[in-house]
Amino acid sequence: MKKKQGLVLLGIVLLGGSLAACTQKTQTEELQQTTSSTSHTRKTHKIKQTPVAPTVLDSSSTTTSSLDETITLLNDELAVAAYLDNYQAQHPELTLEQIIQEILTNPNFIMAHQDNLNSMVLVQSEQQLRNGDVASEVTISNDQVYARQFNGNELLKEQEYTKKELTDAYGRSLDQIREIIQLAQTHLADSNEQTSNEKNTVDGKNLTQEQVKEWIRNYLIQVEHMKPDMIMNRTTIEMSFSDGQLIINPRSIGVTNTSSLGFFKINASGQLEKQDVATGQYEVVSETPLLD
């Protein structure tokens, strides 16, 4: 009887050990699965990508990048932005930076206003159109920017923007845009000065008698360095024709007589010539009229 009880107790002990071993194994497997799951989760984590804004605006494109909302492009800046958009559309092979550098090195780049409010801006328009250049005629009204985009004399398209669209697309290039405007203003000033000088240039072949006298007086003062008071107040200028040519003889007025200051004439090219006393020949002494 005792032997049978001992066998029962031994069976109970062995069964308990087996159950404990199974429980430990199950816990170990669960821990390994948890660790494996955690490791797998870390390996498959993805980084969110930032969207890229389009470089060229059209009626269907919108910008997704953010911009300092305190930036507001002025009329001239909006006109340059629309021009840059036109340039990019016609030259997609160039980056915006390359386009800006091309403009900044263009010796003929110019902008002009068609009204006193600067609401219509011509960028590379008028005479530049004949050269086949990219050009824009931009009108700004309230929040709308209306652009007629050209290549040479060909109108490629008429496009509308909002100020925000152009600001979002080109606001980051504001410093370069202002450089472009400054360059255009410098070129325009130089062009206006040249035009003014051309208008003020007098054709030596078509002078009035008063202009001829003024030329002679200024020549005597500026080139021959005679005293201004004597030339302006005590010199008379006589004119006569010889062999179809106008002969000019300035004479200094003295107390009792007058003395010649030389003989001059204007040749067929409109140049002032003076007679050499020794040879009697005339030589050019002034290429263009010296007028005040």
Account of the protein in words:
- Helix 2 (about 75-90) packs across helix 5.
- This protein has helices at about 1-45, 75-90, 95-105, 165-170, 175-200, 210-220, 230-235, and strands spanning about 110-115, 120-125, 135-140, 145-150, 155-160, 235-240, 245-255, 260, 265, 270-275, 280-285.
- Residues about 1-15, about 35-55 and about 60-65 have low confidence and may be disordered.
- The strands form two sheets. Strands 6, 7, 8, 9, 10 and 11 form a six-stranded antiparallel β-sheet that branches.
- Helices cover about 40% and strands about 20% of the residues.
- With about 290 residues, it is α+β, with helices and mostly antiparallel strands.
- It contains seven helices and eleven strands.
- The protein is elongated.
